[in-house]
Fold each of these.
Amino acid sequence: MSFIDARQVPNGTQLTPDLVVVGGGPAGITLALALAHTPIKVLLLEAGGMEFDSATQQLYAGDETGVRYIPLDATRLRYFGGCSNHWGGWSRPLEPIDFEQRDWLPYSGWPFSRAELEPYFTRAQQLIEAGPFLYDTLAKGDLPGSLLPLGPGGVYNSFFQFSQWRGNANHLPTAFGHRYADALKGIPNLQLMLHANVTGLRLAHDVRWVDHLDVATLSGGRFTVHPRHIVLACGGIENARLLLASNDVISAGVGNQNDQVGRFFADHAIPRNTATLVVFGGEIAGFYKANQDARGAHFRATLAPTERFRREQKLLGALPTVEQRVELDEIGRAAVATTSAALGVDASNAHAYSLGTGLELAPDPERRLTLIDTRDALGMPRLKLNMTISDGDFASYRAILVELGRQLLAAKSGMLRLDRSTRTEWLSAMDWGNHHMGTTRMHEDPKRGVVDANAQVHGLANLFVAGSSVFPTYGASNPTLNLIALTLRLADHLKGVFG
Amino acid sequence: MSVSRRTIMAAGGTLVAAVAGGIVYEGWRLLRDRYPPTPYDDLLDRLNSREDARRIGLVFLGRHRNFTPATAARALRQRIGAHELSAALANEVALGGITEAAGWIIPESVAGLCALAASV
Ligand SMILES: Cc1cc2nc3c(=O)[nH]c(=O)nc-3n(C[C@H](O)[C@H](O)[C@H](O)COP(=O)(O)OP(=O)(O)OC[C@H]3O[C@@H](n4cnc5c(N)ncnc54)[C@H](O)[C@@H]3O)c2cc1C
């Protein structure tokens, strides 16, 4: 069956699927694929078409305050496949510690452990086409080069794997819309509608149930969907917007009776040139500098803190990677010559590299999305993001770098220079991962979260959320593999809900 | 014990040789590094290049104003003792004995040696 164009749907139409999935990014597509062989009649509503379109993209624009962040219409894509149309494919499972409630990290912890996601990682890995699920086991097998020797301590050689669209000549990461279009067209119980923007969730009289959804097209079409169940899969920013903007009955918005929706926004900070890594023995193995292939995986090394070190030192996650080769200044050359000689090693062929990192942020309720007065072309209120990053977040990463420096000296393999200390220095070379998380956080207590452990919105019998907006604590790992595993778990739950 | 003339001559010979050797050694040092003798040469001689060490030491001293060479030298002698410097550093680093100079993470003893080099 081919996709339906919502612009052709007559005004006033009422659709009645079993389940409506709002959003056709990796989360929505994963859910549709996972429910393929069930009797559940699914309608997937996607705001965009098959390709980028600036009028649709404009619907994502918003305001920002606080720390400089990417404009809201530049940090995501509103067409079929969502942000996977230009994601980087970096993948890594969250670590068990990321799920733990930690006394020293306010608001931390998931309602379950990583073991809960374990059964879903293999399938998630297949969907992102990142080869066999190897990650840290890569260190144990043959690699095309040597691991950087590190003395015993809190940092270890760890690995990312990369999504790689197998049929694609350029080996780009899997763009879910194009990659899975044919598979989706072959699902008998699925209707997939493009150019269908959900603009509101309308509650039933008892406010315990979403009665219907309003759908609008940019060509002026308006119709409604009356499903038994709903999954929001509009991405980590738009899931919150849709809940907040559906405020005709409850003024705070759907699911927002405890003022949690939109709070705890997070992304991974990506400060560049954070440190200089010197390798005494010469050139570092290629898989630290770029993606390489081994054992069927496209991978790259990171110098990651161990879970034990993070627990002991009370540290957030960080995944430092080698950026590029750099030249040392006079003091740097003196430091390397003096230290290597004192350690009794030859550093005459030493190579220096800059280190960047992906950095976890501590959960912060004030890093949040709120509605503003301006409206988009479909009449929906736009968002404002208040972005924050604390000095503690930087200090946590610095402690990891210091430990890495110590371990290099202990192994007599190299040394490290810290290149950022003040807040201004950190912020001066700051990128962001475009990993939108936390705005509909998962917590068993409705006062502390928007969805429960099954991703069901507290207090609403038929509304669920898929995607990284439910992550209550973020880790440093890239979100997509993990949100897909979580969506597969949700699919299993929904199969039970539908009996 | 009676001291024979022969012993005195031998001792004298050794002394002469030692003094001469000392002059040659000092002369060689002066020629090589052009450094006047200091009370810390036993430590500073463990450095690869005093000029390099001085560069780092100056930065380190900028952030450690109460550094006193005599106290630091005593501590360094105690820590390093008769060990090879590299062995002493390995032990030190394993126990967390690191510090920062100009952003560089270096063993505390290396920082101490550099600071000494910068203070003489
Ligand atoms: C530049 C960039 C690089 C990235 N690199 C990586 C990476 O290397 N590794 C990694 O793990 N992650 C990366 N990400 C993040 C990754 O793309 C997201 O985690 C992932 O796409 C989220 O999937 P999703 O389905 O939850 O949301 P999205 O991908 O945002 O998809 C949401 C979908 O919902 C649709 N939609 C939105 N609103 C409505 C509405 N009202 N009605 C109907 N449909 C709607 C959108 O059009 C879109 O198709 C990157 C993102 C960007 C932008």
Amino acid sequence: MRVAVLGVGYSGFNTNTPDLNWKELMLEAAVRAYEDAGINPRKDVDSVVTCAEDFWEGFAIFDEFVPDQLGGVLKPTCTVCSDFLYGVATAYMQIKSGLADIVVVEAHSKASDILTFGEVIKFAMDPVWLRDIGNAHPYYFAALEMSQYVSECCINEEQIAEVVVKNKNNALLNSSAPYGAKVTVEDVLNSPMVFDPMRKIEIAPVSDGAVVFVLGNEFVAREITDTPVWVKGVGWWSETSNYDTMSFNAMYAYKAAKMAYKLAKITNPAKEVDFAEVDDRFAFKELQHIEALQLSRKYETGSLMQEGYFARDGELPVNVSGGNLGVGNLLEATGGQKALEVVLQLRGLAGKRQIEAETGVAQAWRYIPTASGTVAVFGV
Amino acid sequence: MFNEKIVDPAELRHWGGKIELYWIYTSGEAGDRFFKALRDEGKFIAAKCKKCGRVYFPPRMYCEFDFSETEYQEISGKGRVRAYTVAWLDKDEKPLEKPEIYAIIDMEGTDGCMIHLLGEVEEDQVEIGMEVEPVLRDKSEREGTINDILYFKPS
Ligand SMILES: [Zn+2]
């Protein structure tokens, strides 16, 4: 039984959303997704999966606050405390097992409501061994990983700057990417260093938005369209919760990709994957994740980035949407925005940034201070 | 700057709120052993897996790779800088009074490491591979927490 994307909807993405509260943000994305799929949620949906983390929301037991705004009351509902792509994996299993024909997956970010973003991340750090060390923003944790990565893999600052330049310029062709900008490598290198070796511009600022997918089995998909986009594979993986045993080298993404590629029957990702949307909430993470997805070999990723290999018109475009550096940090909706871009590209609905592609990969990380992540492979 | 946007909706219609919550965090069997030895004797404790021999730092009572027991052993507390960052912003993204240097320090005699601050060294003098040793709070002021270690300094 194959799993198809029946419809997608989104709201945002923007730096803040004064007109809608978080429930209305979800509603807006859901209404669009149901219209896109041509379904009636009260009648056709078998199961609802939301992806959220209480501390981002500012209240406890998030799963109590759904599914009314998704049209899913009186139905099987659960919340995955993680990224949207974990929700896709959950829905995939529900459909594959025959438990449900049509499943809705949702994730959102109302990050602009959070007044103490740094404090929330600090709350994710081990309270005994790590949280109370020093007074810096927990972004330092990512900078430590970057320090190890750039020295291990001989990455220079121009190569990191190229990631920022590519993604912010890509974002100029995406009307849903609020942080698009016409920047150059020189601009980046002249911008403030805040967590040496990391510059402020390499850190994706937060943004708001919601993503809803309607997934269904092959039979339902065939009734709706002759050319569905398929979920070809999903994978997820965690290293450990302890910093002393983490690889600090995106092993989680490598293993999650292996799992997804196996399901998708992809044996040579660098050849078979046409494009990818990867987690670039810190610029160096894009290089690390490209390697982990086996789209390039270790030690060559930085120079390929400089040569334009991952550009929109390059051999293997990465983050054509603008990535998190262009769209913003969407918290648990991060993987949602990536999957959305992959689906829009595969359906030929990506407007001016449209590329030619048949197989695309979406990848998300669980953010600092974790070593966990997910990968989903989509194709036509 | 070229990419600055308004990201603060506090000027817009909103409702203020906060979560004021309190916990105690127990440090656990291994943590208790570590922090007491640090507070009372200024010693560092690691934990060795009885099965595979991996030496954990920070210490813990189980090996996460083969899920078996560990035994405690004393280590020097010295280490080597594997990675570092000079942090200029506080948790609210405002400039820190003085930058803080954080490091991943591979701990001597273990397979583990510690994330902590570096001190008694200028920002531009820190190097990957640099050998460092811990500087502890005066014994009378130690509380049995991670901040009984003030920082690590070049040795
Ligand atoms: Zn062991």
